[in-house]
Amino acid sequence: MISRGSGTGSNDAVTAARADGGGAGLAVRDVVVRYAKAPGGLWRRTRATTVAVDHVSLDVDQGEIVALLGPSGCGKSSLLRAVAGLEPLADGTVTWDDGDLTGVPVHRRQFGLMFQDGQLFPHRDAGRNVAYGLEAQHVPAPERAERVAGLLELVGLAGYERRRVATLSGGERQRVALARALAPRPRLLLLDEPLSALDRRLRERLAAEVRRVLKETGTTALFVTHDHDEAFAVADRVGVMSGGRLLQVAPPEELREKPATAEVAEFLGP
Amino acid sequence: MFVGLFFAWPVAMLVARGFVADGALDLTGFADVLGRPRTWRLVGLTLAQSFLGTGFALVAGLPVAFLLYRRTFPGRGLLRGLVTVPFVLPTVVVGVAFRSLFVPDGALGFLGLEETLGGIVVALVFFNLAVVVRTVGGLWERLDPRTEQAAAALGASPGRVWWTVTLPSLAPALVSAASVVFLFCATAFGVVMVLGGARYGTVETEIWVRTTQFLDLRSAAVLSILQLVVVATALAVSARTRSRREAALHLVSDRTSAVPLRRSRGDVAAVAATAAVVGGLILLPLGGLALRSFRGPDGRLGLANYAALGTTGERGALTVTVWEALGNSLRTAAWACAIALVVGGLVALLASRRPRGTGARRAVSLLDGLFMLPLGVSAVTVGFGFLVTLDQPLGVEYDLRTSPALVPIAQAVVAVPLVTRTVLPVLRAIDPRLREVAGTLGAGPWAVLRTVDLPLAARSLGLAVGFAFAVSLGEFGATSFLVRPQSETLPVVIFRLIGRPGAENYGMALAASVVLAALTAVVMMLAERLRGDHGGGEF
């Protein structure tokens, strides 16, 4: 459940820190995320939990793109959801520009999020999907339309405003989702396997495009994927995760040349 | 809060009345009532009627479900609508329709079904066919046909495939439909009152008779408790299978697996069975009712019966004219519908949340079940409970029994579960990540509700309005207890007309039934329009 109230104070602190220009960005410290086991059993008393994220620390500087790479079930998506404020932290802190985000509800964090399957609003056309975050910010209509057109053009879908979501291809949907996530100018964009549902060729092309769009807009991004090539193509630095732990974070070349442990080397392969 | 005040409390007081006399625990009321052979005969009849009704509804519903959900053909949508009509028809109308067939000079008079168990069972099957067809068909439509194909490829004959693969896959829906139908049969009131006459009765009608004719509230309370036990058992079975069905749904494909009609033996048999069921069970009584309504008291065809609707009947049988009663019905139903929509919508919203904590999750599932209860507990019990408790609601010195708000509230209690069951599946089907995305785009919890849940659930809300309105229009059990003479609704008036002698009154009852049926059908058709093709729901 989202709690209101306690958010305001820290939120002000965050905004203040942001006003003086390039701050420290995202800092994740000793974060632990736990899930209840067997969520299906309604009437069974289950206290057992599994640790999805196990004492992870990670920094993302402003303007930087960091990828989290690991096999499915390694905890990378849970970490992403915890940063977004969608999962409660069992331990540790998440801060932005040194302002603690504990208790700041999802919609006040100004963090964008993009899912694997886009999750476009089926009852809105492409343009109004992109406009959603701007409406929440009460951006006046003419400016909104201009921003929407600009963003659609940025992702290569100029003139798609009135298209119904159901008529879009998988790649087009992900582009709309990216434009929608970028529209409110998030301080940090979280991408959860944004290209995994697409076929290989499209994925390769879009990976390069995502990097271009993120760099052009100067967006700070945390990117989760299980695909090595995708991670290396998009990110400035790549973190390798396994079993809920972050094994190593380094630029792609360094990761390939000097893996910190045998496990990292084995995961990355030859 | 609403259910607490207007459902749980009246029922609890009712139970207390059965156990407590003069401020002391007293079980003699039980011993007294349970000692009467009449009680056991009534229980026996109730159970017989329920088992027979359920059994025949299942047998008749299966081929129809197959044809309407596994095969495509022109006119399928129309046929689906036609099969649904009986379910929303006011019970009194159903009763009148079958009565007009079973009376000695009726189309089926030679069968001698008037005022017999057989006649009532036929009417109950008519009434509940839609439940079976929709519940079973909804699952059947989504069963992955490849499982059956795999069985056939392993050398199983069509009959064997049916017994070993299809039927077991359908089992959850079958059990769920059976328990709901059983419930409806056990608590059927209007149908039994109209068709059973003086010779035939069930626990439900006995409660009514005890209360309104003999003012024997104590026996009525004991009987209500007896019925609650039966209903609770059926609901528990239903809930168990429902949770199993929800688990089973994961094995099922998203897209529909219906194929065009073929000339195979199975298909021809299904078409024949459906034609027999729809023709004999649905068209015959409805057509018969419409036809007879045009035959005036003097036996000639014409609009005499409809012209009489502006009067209070032969020898002043009524206190209001039928048209006034129609106005009362519409007003009451509109209020009941509004109340049910607000309460049912809120419950659906709450029950659709999946909170993190185990305790909270349990509370949500409990709430879900609590609001299903009024569906099972008979309307008569609700009406009776109101009568017993609401002279001083929660100790407040305000006699709610004389308030004009009473009937709409009672009808709303009956309609709330329908609203909840219609909206809930749609809300549950919304991917929680859609709300999460909205949150990250800066929408607060209220904005998410307004911009995501509401637009997506809007169509199902429309259907819920239709359901609630139709059910309130036809509600008879609780209303007949609570309504005041000046504000009698159409179903109550119809029942009154049937009970009075005179060909003119009978003709008026037929005409009024046609009016009520037409009104309900129009409301449901508008609502079905809103629903479109997807989003099954429960009924």
UniProtKB/TrEMBL annotation, chain A:
Gene3D superfamilies: P-loop containing nucleotide triphosphate hydrolases. InterPro entries: AAA+_ATPase, ABC_SmlMolc_Importer, ABC_transporter-like_ATP-bd, ABC_transporter-like_CS, P-loop_NTPase. PROSITE patterns: ABC_TRANSPORTER_1, ABC_TRANSPORTER_2. SUPFAM superfamilies: P-loop containing nucleoside triphosphate hydrolases (SSF52540). The keyword Nucleotide-binding applies. GO terms for molecular function: ATP binding. Coiled coil: none annotated. The keyword Acetylation does not apply. It comes from the Bacteria. Residues 26-268 form the ABC transporter domain. Keywords: ATP-binding, Nucleotide-binding, Transport. This is ABC transporter ATP-binding protein. It comes from Myceligenerans pegani. The lineage of its organism: Bacteria, Bacillati, Actinomycetota, Actinomycetes, Micrococcales.
